């Protein structure tokens, strides 16, 4: 295809490098007429939306254009990566439009938890981040848990308005949109696309029976999440697909845990205590003495310590160290965006060092569970 060719469907510039980015045209489809991007192809032939991703500047411009509409905004976040996938400043951009917070992937939580407690945690944390929400819904788009509550809340808060769905990449936005298309849209009428004001991107309009629409927006890429810094080949090991089995470790000070070859956790100082890991069970966990950790890593990363492989590690940024002080008297999570978290039980204080790829968000928070 010649440089600069445009999709006959949505007008976006075509490219064949990345299926994640707008305008993707698989090599195999280049001979097809009319020449349309994969996203338009799926919409027209399968009534199926697949999200594309854009960077922060384009995304903020797009959010700004929502601010000048009268609509309901659904913000979908990943419960398992809450602080990593929450769009900070969303409120500022969407103006007075109400925000419905849909928290996805609750199927990953270990069985038997108190969901009210989790819901309260979500509400408190969202509020601290400056987000006012008309409602918080917990669901799993993939496993179809709680989806009826999403529909109920949509009906209740929509009030004859359009609905914009916004979220970061990999939170399950396409999965949710496709469920909305099947369960909620007016299938008598067709999906359409049109341009977001001031951008080259197409929006998908999913028709509702009152003439209004649910509008899919591209996913924002946050490079502060582990899911965005690892190669695609490794993403499957990072995104859990089954409920997480928490792993409990009794540690003495001066002990280290390697979470695969991706993150290092040092218990530097404090009384013997337990730490509970909520991370993908596909990651290998290796315990060692802190004094041995440097040597072990340089000799065995990508091999004995587990994935990612040495080759994959080469494309991941170098580690930086985060020193954290866990207080005594309350449970706290050491959260690593896009990876999960380690719960400290709070029976006594602890000095912790976490090594994670540069740019990945690491923070201490009140315990979710
Ligand atoms: P998008 O990038 O936000 O559009 O996200 P996708 O819908 O493509 O989903 C990203 C990843 O999360 C995929 O591997 C999905 O299978 C997975 N996913 C989506 N929804 C859920 C869910 O409710 N639970 C779990 N465990 N995984 C989900």
From TrEMBL:
Pfam families reported in the protein's UniProt record: MMR_HSR1 (PF01926), YqeH-like_C (PF21516)
Q: Where's the CP-type G domain?
A: 56-223
Molecular function per GO: GTP binding
Top-level taxon of origin: Bacteria
* Annotated NCBIfam families: GTPase_YqeH
Q: What is this protein called?
A: Ribosome biogenesis GTPase YqeH
From which source organism is this entry?
Paenibacillus oryzae
């Amino acid at each position: 295809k010649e440089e600069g060719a445009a999709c006959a469907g949505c007008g976006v510039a075509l490219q064949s490098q990345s299926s994640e980015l707008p305008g993707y045209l698989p090599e195999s489809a280049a001979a097809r007429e009319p020449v349309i991007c994969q996203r338009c192809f799926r919409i027209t032939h399968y009534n199926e939306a697949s999200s594309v991703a854009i960077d922060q500047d384009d995304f903020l411009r797009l959010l700004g254009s929502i601010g000048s509409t009268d609509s309901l905004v659904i913000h979908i976040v990943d419960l398992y990566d809450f602080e990593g996938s929450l769009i900070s400043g969303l409120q500022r951009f969407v103006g007075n439009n109400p925000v419905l917070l849909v928290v996805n992937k609750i199927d990953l939580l270990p069985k038997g938890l108190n969901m009210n407690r989790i819901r309260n945690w979500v509400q408190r944390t969202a509020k601290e981040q400056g987000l006012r929400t008309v409602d918080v819904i917990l669901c799993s788009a993939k496993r179809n848990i709680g989806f009826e509550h999403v529909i109920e809340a949509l009906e209740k808060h929509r009030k004859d308005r359009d609905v914009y769905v916004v979220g970061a990449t990999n939170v399950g936005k396409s999965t949710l949109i496709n469920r909305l298309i099947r369960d909620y849209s007016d299938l008598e009428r067709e999906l359409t696309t049109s341009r977001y004001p001031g951008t080259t991107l197409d929006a998908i309009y999913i028709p509702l029976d009152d003439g209004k629409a649910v509008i899919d927006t591209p996913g924002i890429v946050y490079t502060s999440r582990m899911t965005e810094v690892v190669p695609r080949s490794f993403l499957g090991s990072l995104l859990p697909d089954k409920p997480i089995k928490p792993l409990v470790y009794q540690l003495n000070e001066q002990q280290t845990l390697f979470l695969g070859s991706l993150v290092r956790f040092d218990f530097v100082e404090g009384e013997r205590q337990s730490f509970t890991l909520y991370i993908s069970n596909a990651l290998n966990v290796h315990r060692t003495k802190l004094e041995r950790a440097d040597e072990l890593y340089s000799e065995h990363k990508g091999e004995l310590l587990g994935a990612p492989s040495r080759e994959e590690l080469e494309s991941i940024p170098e580690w930086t160290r985060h020193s954290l002080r866990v207080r005594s008297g309350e449970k706290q999570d050491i959260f690593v965006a896009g990876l999960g978290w380690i719960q400290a039980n709070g029976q006594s204080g602890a000095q912790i060092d976490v090594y994670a790829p540069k740019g990945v968000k690491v923070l201490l928070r009140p315990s979710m569970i």
